[in-house]
């Protein structure tokens, strides 16, 4: 009990220095938590994919469309359960800064192929019946205070003009990492208008989403699909949804890698901050350690005093930082456009890493002061001036 009392008294002897150290550790832990959250959420978008879905896109580039006529041919490939398609619409909703996915889809099959998008049967029926109906994610509905029956107007850019939609459904995600930031509407509605305004684009779709019966046969089915359109004017590349999503993630790979590295560099910064405090404390207490040795304090007691002080400061800074990370991440989520990060939450691994880092930093920062205290002779300790 006396040793514990000494530990806390030593930790708070220089209050300003200790508070600044705790503050520095807290800021570093918050920065670590925020950066790691961005990195893990980016990776979670890959984990959210389904093993039984393939993506068939234009072989040259994703930005080039595919003919609508491919749908019927793909459906006839053995092992294919269902085929739907999507087309990136773009457009502007109210303001150019309002970014979220706006997609023209096959309204008849979209929700069969994406069962993780939960929609009531009444909403689904209403969506299918009305040509200019749309379905939006729960996050989008919450952000813009939208309700069923209200109108959403988009100003087209890829598809020029004014486009009016009526909200007939608000879907929720089946899992925590399901994207709830999309707006989905009838491809037919877009196609009909394009037949008048731009006939050459009327029968184009962006990409096909292919649901397969057996995920183990994905490679075989992918090859069979691509073989159908080999040497055509629009050859295809079919890959698993996971591989397709990884392609988007890898496009930002350098940024994500840099953020990942920076998050661990921050751990080094924490260590330097705390190590500096502990070295200064050990230097100031050289004579005290000599007195302790004279009074019969063993090496175990000195190790406990120094290590305990380091762990107290590290734990306080880490604990406060971790506690503040949650509201700061929540605030960051609110500040960011909903479509930029489809979901944003702290993964358990981030908490584990932050706690582990705090403990390791506390231990390592005490090594030099302990070595110094144990190896300083009593006579040298009494002679020390500093």
Largest sheet: 10 strands, mixed
Q: What amount of the residues lies in strands?
A: 15-25%
Strand tally is 12
Series of H and E elements: HHEEHEEHEHEHEEEHEEHEHHHHHHH
What Rg, in angstroms, do the CA atoms define? 30 Å
What overall geometry do the principal axes of the alpha carbons give?
Answer: elongated
Q: Mean pLDDT score, rounded?
A: 84
- Count structural domains: 2
* Cα separation of the termini: 30 Å
Stretches where pLDDT is under 50 for at least 5 consecutive residues are none
Q: Structural class of the helix and strand makeup?
A: alpha+beta
Q: How does this structure look, described?
A:
The chain is α+β, with helices and mostly antiparallel strands. It folds into two domains: 2-46 and 253-383, no CATH class; 65-233, no CATH class. Helix content is 55%, strand content 17%. The longest helix has 37 residues, at 299-335. A hairpin with a 4-residue loop joins strand 7 (151-156) and strand 8. It has 15 helices and twelve strands. The chain has helices at 2-11, 15-47, 70-75, 110-113, 121-129, 138-143, 187-197, 218-228, 241-251, 253-284, 286-294, 299-335, 348-365, 367-375, 378-383, and strands at 53-58, 66-67, 80-88, 101-105, 117-118, 133-137, 151-156, 161-173, 182-186, 204-205, 207-212, 236-240. The strands form two sheets. Strands 1, 3, 4, 5, 6, 7, 8, 9, 11 and 12 form a ten-stranded mixed beta sheet that branches. Helix 1 (2-11) packs across helix 12, helix 2 (15-47) crosses helix 9 and helix 2 (15-47) crosses helix 12 (299-335).
């Amino acid at each position: 009990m006396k040793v514990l009392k000494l530990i806390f008294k030593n930790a708070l002897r220089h209050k300003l220095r200790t508070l600044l150290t705790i503050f520095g550790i807290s800021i570093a832990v918050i920065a670590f938590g925020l950066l790691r959250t961005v990195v893990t959420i980016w990776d979670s978008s890959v984990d959210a994919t389904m093993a039984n879905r393939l993506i068939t896109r234009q072989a040259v580039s994703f930005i080039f469309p595919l003919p609508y006529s491919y749908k019927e041919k793909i459906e006839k490939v053995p092992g294919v359960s269902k085929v739907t398609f999507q087309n990136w619409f773009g457009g502007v909703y109210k303001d150019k800064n309002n970014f979220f996915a706006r997609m023209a889809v096959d309204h008849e099959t979209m929700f069969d192929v994406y069962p993780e998008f939960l929609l009531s049967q009444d909403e689904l029926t209403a969506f299918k019946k009305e040509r200019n109906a749309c379905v939006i994610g729960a996050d989008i509905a919450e952000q813009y205070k939208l309700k069923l029956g209200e109108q959403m107007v988009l100003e087209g850019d890829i598809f020029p003009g004014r486009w009016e939609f009526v909200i007939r459904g608000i879907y929720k995600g089946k899992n925590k990492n399901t994207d709830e930031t999309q707006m989905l509407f009838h491809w037919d509605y877009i196609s009909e208008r394009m037949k008048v305004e731009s006939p050459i684009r009327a029968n184009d779709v962006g990409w096909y989403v292919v649901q397969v019966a057996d995920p183990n046969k994905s490679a075989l089915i992918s090859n069979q699909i691509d073989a159908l359109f080999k040497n055509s004017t629009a050859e295809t590349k079919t890959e698993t949804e996971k591989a397709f999503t990884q392609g988007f993630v890898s496009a930002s790979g350098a940024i994500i890698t840099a953020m990942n590295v920076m998050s661990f560099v921050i751990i080094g910064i924490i260590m330097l901050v705390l190590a500096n405090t502990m070295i200064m404390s050990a230097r100031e207490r050289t004579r005290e350690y000599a007195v302790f040795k004279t009074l019969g304090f063993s090496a175990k007691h000195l190790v406990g005093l120094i290590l305990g002080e380091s762990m107290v400061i590290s734990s306080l800074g880490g604990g406060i930082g971790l506690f503040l990370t949650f509201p700061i991440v929540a605030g960051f989520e609110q500040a960011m456009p909903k479509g930029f990060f489809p979901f944003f939450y702290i993964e358990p691994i981030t908490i584990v890493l932050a706690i582990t880092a705090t403990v390791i930093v506390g231990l390592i920062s005490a090594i030099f002061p302990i070595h110094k205290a144990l190896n300083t002779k009593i006579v040298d300790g009494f002679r020390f001036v500093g």
